[in-house]
TrEMBL record:
Entry keyword annotation includes Amino-acid biosynthesis: no
Protein name listed in UniProt: Polymorphic outer membrane protein
Record field: transmembrane: 439-460, 466-483, 495-519, 531-552
Gene3D superfamilies hit by this protein: 2.160.20.20
Domain of life: Eukaryota
Entry-linked InterPro entries: Autotransporter_pectin_lyase_C, Pectin_lyase_fold/virulence
The keyword Membrane is assigned to this record: yes
Keywords on record: Membrane, Transmembrane, Transmembrane helix
Length: 739
């Protein structure tokens, strides 16, 4: 299939059978799709499972290249399963290259589970390269029944498969449950991995959420993995959330149950595990702002597993509870069970555990089974547990549960790290500023090296070859240790330190050669002049490296300042930056209303530009809201000052049908009397609208509703009823029309 458009195809099983592949279904075949768009396709059934809103691939292979799948749905309204909003593959070899999957949904509305808002992958080998998955949803609802709703993988659900994502982006995806069953659960806002192997390379996951909107639990705002091999390299997870109102939240970015986890050269930032406790009287806990890792099951039996973090940063994450007596555990991580962990060059910064009414346990918090006896010491990594506990514990010790006494850590649990900050440690903080936290001892190492080179060696046979030889040994060993430990966070500092250490070694070698030439004038030793030249070159190399680092960092700072200066909104004539007063808590300066099909990307750019120009502006964009649902926009308008309407195709009509949420939002804004800002689409590739076309679409929607006699229907105020006002039940939602 090449250069094809497939749209509005439907696989319907109205008699209770299975619905499979809204646009394409293959069995043991080789399917190749290139330069193709598949949109608004559906696999829907009322009494069985649905598979693949766009396509189901059973065996064989699937190749998607430079293609787009958008607004496809796999749905079931019975107590059954919805698999893969866009694509369902089983035991197939699947390859997606430069492909976009957006606005797709796996919807189980009758109490059953949903799997993979974009894709469900069951077995086989899968490669996604240069692929974007955005605004996809795995939604499960138990409203109106006693069933338990499970939403699995807002973007992709993977079971017993080998999957690789390279140079890809997953954004604004959600696993969301609704209903009043305590057993409801949302697993993995972006990815749910069960068994098999998942490899992420140079990939970004952002603004995803596992959201239990009523009661139930949420696991992994970005990733939920069970007994799987999960490997992340050069990957960023940001602004992801595990959010619940009446249950527990586990892992703002990742929730890991057993298996093996490796993060290398990766970043987790601004992720949150948030148990609000707003709709229940029970205690609701939050576990691990960035990561929750479990290596034991409820009966205490260990799960086989390991975790390795190297050259990785975790920052600005939070574990929070809002109401009730819930406890917040581990602003960065909570780790439970008997397991093996390796942390090398790991930075944890600005993470917090905060509780509205209950207890809060530390930036990084951990538990272990009987071997360690309970919570580990404040701020320490005891080989197998990372923890911060409110109780003061000395180094190399831990506090067992229910005890006020600290006892030594068992043999083999060598403590790496530092205790709770003291006045002295705060005063000396400048010494290890810029160092990785786990090598704060590097300051002492550098001091010892200087003392040896400039002090102790001066006392050992001054002026002899032995003195120079020992100096060369010390310089060489310190260079090797420095390159192995890599103590500095900033790459520029690492480069400068390496060049300086190398220059010192070369200087020692040159001095040793000069000394030998003086003692052994007849020996075959290099010309002293040449040696001096080499020493000068080594010194100049250090100076050159320092200058290069300074220039590069200065250019980066200046470029950032110029960028911000250009984007900031300024007053004409006086070149003064405009200052916008911050909005009240919970309020927004402007509400961005747009049709998802044709306006989502543009409004994301608009929001970013507004933030660049006015850093204090508070903008509501529905795809950035972790609790978003149909109809929530109209509620948020009560807390908004202005209404920006992006008039693209599909807002009032056109090629795409009018957007119901947009109509409700617009009428609500009119009712509230909000100031309107209208922005027109002008780019040809996005179906631009002229003012006259926009007027025609609005007039068509404003045609009055007629009764059986052809007479316009009037509302309680004697006004005619526009068709759009009646069509979507807007009268009941908003009340009488504004005057």
């Amino acid at each position: 299939m090449d250069d094809t458009i497939i749209t509005e195809c439907v696989a319907i099983a109205s008699g209770g059978g299975r619905a499979q592949g809204g646009a394409l279904y293959t069995t043991d075949a080789s399917a190749t799709v290139a330069l193709t768009t598949i949109s608004n396709c559906t696999a829907t059934t009322a009494g069985a499972d649905s598979f693949g809103g766009a396509m189901e691939i059973y065996g064989g292979s699937l190749t998607l290249d430079d293609s787009t799948i958008t607004a496809c749905v796999a749905s079931t309204s019975g107590d059954d399963n919805a698999y893969g909003g866009a694509v369902y593959t089983r035991e197939a070899s699947t390859s997606l290259t430069n492909t976009t999957i957006s606005d797709c949904t796996a919807l189980a509305s009758g109490g059953g589970p949903s799997y993979g808002g974009a894709m469900m992958i069951l077995g086989g080998n899968v490669m996604l390269e240069g692929t974007t998955i955005t605004a996809c949803v795995a939604s499960a609802s138990s409203v109106g029944n006693d069933d338990s709703a499970y939403a699995n993988g807002g973007a992709v659900f993977i079971q017993d498969a080998r999957v690789t994502l390279a140079h890809s982006i997953i954004s604004d995806c959600t696993a969301v449950t609704d209903g009043e069953s305590d057993a409801n659960a949302a697993y993995g806002g972006a990815l749910h991995i069960r068994g098999g192997t998942m490899t992420l390379d140079d990939t970004t996951i952002t603004a995803c959420a596992a959201n239990a909107t009523e009661v139930g639990n949420a696991y992994g705002g970005a990733v939920f993995a069970v007994l799987a091999n999960t490997l992340l390299t050069n990957t960023t997870i940001s602004d992801c959330t595990a959010l619940v109102k009446g249950g527990d939240a586990w892992g703002g970015a990742m929730a890991i149950i057993g298996g093996h986890v490796k993060l290398n050269l990766s970043t987790i930032t601004a992720c949150v595990a948030n148990a609000t406790g707003l709709i229940t009287d029970k205690s609701c806990d939050a576990h691990g702002g960035a990561m929750y890792v479990l290596f034991t099951v409820s009966d205490g039996n260990p799960l086989h597993g390991s975790m390795s973090l190297t050259h990785t940063t975790i920052s600005d994450c939070a574990s929070t509870t809002t109401a009730g007596s819930g406890t917040a555990f581990g602003g960065a991580m909570e780790i439970v069970g008997q397991w093996t962990v390796t942390l090398d060059d790991v930075t944890i910064a600005a993470c917090v555990a905060a509780s509205g009414a209950g207890n809060a346990y530390g930036e990084v918090q951990g538990q272990r089974s009987s071997q360690c006896g309970g919570r580990c010491p404040a701020g320490l990594l005891c080989d197998k547990v990372v923890s911060v506990h409110p109780r003061e514990c000395p180094l190399h010790s831990y506090c067992p549960e229910g005890s006020s006494n600290a006892i030594p850590c068992p043999d083999g649990d060598a403590v790496i790290g530092r205790s709770k900050p003291t006045e002295l440690s705060r005063a000396l903080a400048f010494l290890y500023e810029g160092l990785n936290p786990h090598v704060s001892w590097w300051v002492l190492f550098v001091l010892a090296r200087q003392l040896v080179l400039t002090g102790f060696l001066a006392l050992i046979e001054p002026g002899t070859l032995m003195q120079l030889y020992l100096g060369l040994i010390v310089a060489s060993l310190s260079l090797v240790i420095e390159m192995h430990v890599s103590p500095y966070v900033d790459p520029g500092n690492r480069l400068l330190a390496t060049v300086s250490g190398t220059s010192l070694v070369l200087a020692m070698i040159g001095l040793l050669a000069l000394k030998m030439s003086a003692f052994l004038p007849d020996a075959n030793v290099a010309n002293p002049t040449k040696i001096l030249v080499l020493l000068v070159v080594a010194a100049l190399a250090v100076v050159g490296a320092a200058v290069a680092v300074f220039i590069l960092e200065s250019r980066a700072i200046l470029a950032e300042r110029r960028s911000m200066a250009v984007r900031r909104l300024r007053l004409q004539g006086i070149d003064k930056a405009v200052t916008l007063a911050p909005s009240a808590p919970g309020r927004y300066h402007v509400f961005l209303s747009h049709a998802w099909v044709t306006g989502q990307d543009q409004m994301r750019v608009v929001k970013q530009r507004l933030l660049d120009m006015l850093p204090t502006v508070h903008v509501f964009l529905d795809v950035d809201d972790a609790q978003r649902r149909v109809g929530k926009g109209a509620e948020v308008l009560n807390r908004s000052d202005k209404f920006l309407l992006f008039a693209s195709d599909g807002f009032f009509g056109g090629i795409h049908a009018p957007s119901r949420p947009c109509m409700v939002e617009l009428l609500k804004a009119v009712q509230l009397g909000l100031e309107m800002i209208t922005v027109l689409e002008v780019e040809d590739k996005h179906l631009p609208l002229s003012p006259s076309q926009l007027y025609e679409q609005m007039c068509k929607l404003d045609q009055p509703v007629l009764d059986t006699n052809g007479t316009p229907v009037l509302d309680a105020h004697g006004q005619q009823f526009p068709s759009m006002y009646a069509k979507w039940g807007t009268y009941e939602r908003l009340g009488p029309r504004a005057h």
